[in-house]
Design a protein that fits this description.
alpha/beta; Spore Coat Polysaccharide Biosynthesis Protein SpsA, Chain A; globular; transferase; nucleotidyltransferase; G1P_thy_trans_s; EC 2.7.7.24
């Protein structure tokens, strides 16, 4: 297990998904057979992180608590944090400053889904860097729509540009950030952008200026999905359904990860399976019993 703490940013208004998110947080919406937040939660678990802070709006926190509890059913410790207003992704580090207490962090956006064989190993490489910051680059066909990371021939980061007219590469910066313990202080030092937000790109530039920003490139065989629009939400659900139907394996399943990591035992897994006994999800969990180490 790592000493790094996890952060899930599950705030915001979800206005791009209105009207379906006017009565429920975007990160509680279903992506096929699980709540959206299960997927970013699973990414942090795959990184070996058990101490996780979840940042929500004041209005939505009770619903998240009802769904996730204190995390002990998965061998986790969840801490609940409030973002009073959506003032930029980098604001998360100010909200979480006391919780982090100088520890390095891994922050994932609550509407991002990652998939790929070898993902745990890539996360482990990022976690091993105790100083500086690591971003994850994903090749896209339309980089001008994203924050883009520029690299030299050796893969060293040379620039990060938000929605560039002429992209320096085809690698978008995904919503997953491994930063050292200086992130809150750095976030406090940056000025709001013209739209009044603390931009994550500006925060990352402080690491770039120090020569301490690294990029992990997610190549063929990886998938990164941002579920912020109606179309991308549907695409994500179809992607998960196709994977699970073809492979007979769950994607983004906290119970499975906790069991395989040794954070919960056979009895705890059985109790969780019984809870979902009327569903295919429960049947899948039942089938996991006795498989650890095989």
């Amino acid at each position: 297990m790592t000493d790094r703490k996890g952060l899930i940013l599950a705030g915001g208004t979800g206005s791009r998904l209105w009207p379906i998110t006017q009565g429920i947080s975007k990160q509680l919406m279903p992506v096929y057979d699980k709540p959206m937040i299960y997927y970013p939660l699973s990414v942090l678990m795959l990184a070996g992180i058990r101490d996780i802070g979840i940042i929500t709006t004041p209005a939505d926190q009770a619903q998240f608590r009802h769904l996730l509890g204190d995390g002990s059913q998965w061998g986790l410790r969840l801490t609940w944090l409030v973002q009073p207003s959506p003032d930029g992704l980098a604001q998360a580090y100010l909200v979480a400053e006391d919780y982090l207490a100088g520890a390095p962090s891994a922050m994932v956006l609550g509407d991002n889904i990652f998939f790929g064989h070898g993902l745990p190993e890539m996360l482990a490489c990022a976690d091993a860097r105790t100083a500086g910051g690591t971003v994850f680059g994903y090749r896209v066909a339309d980089p001008e729509r994203y924050g883009v990371v520029g690299m030299d021939a050796d893969g060293t980061v040379t620039q990060i540009v938000e929605k560039p007219a002429v992209p320096p590469s085809s690698y978008a910066v995904t919503g997953l950030y491994f930063l050292d313990g200086t992130a809150p202080a750095r976030a406090r030092s940056i000025a709001p952008s013209t739209r009044g937000e603390l931009e994550i790109t500006t925060l990352l530039e402080t690491y770039l200026d120090d020569g301490s920003l690294t990029v992990e490139r997610m190549g063929r065989g990886y998938a990164w999905l941002d579920t912020g629009t109606h179309g991308s939400l549907l695409d994500a659900g179809n992607f998960v359904r196709t994977l699970q139907s073809r492979q007979g394996m769950q994607t983004g399943c906290p119970e499975e990860i906790a069991y395989l990591q040794g954070w919960i035992d056979e009895d705890a897994l059985g109790a969780l399976a019984h809870r979902y006994a009327k569903t295919d999800y429960g049947t899948y969990l039942s089938g996991l019993q006795g498989t650890r180490g095989t």
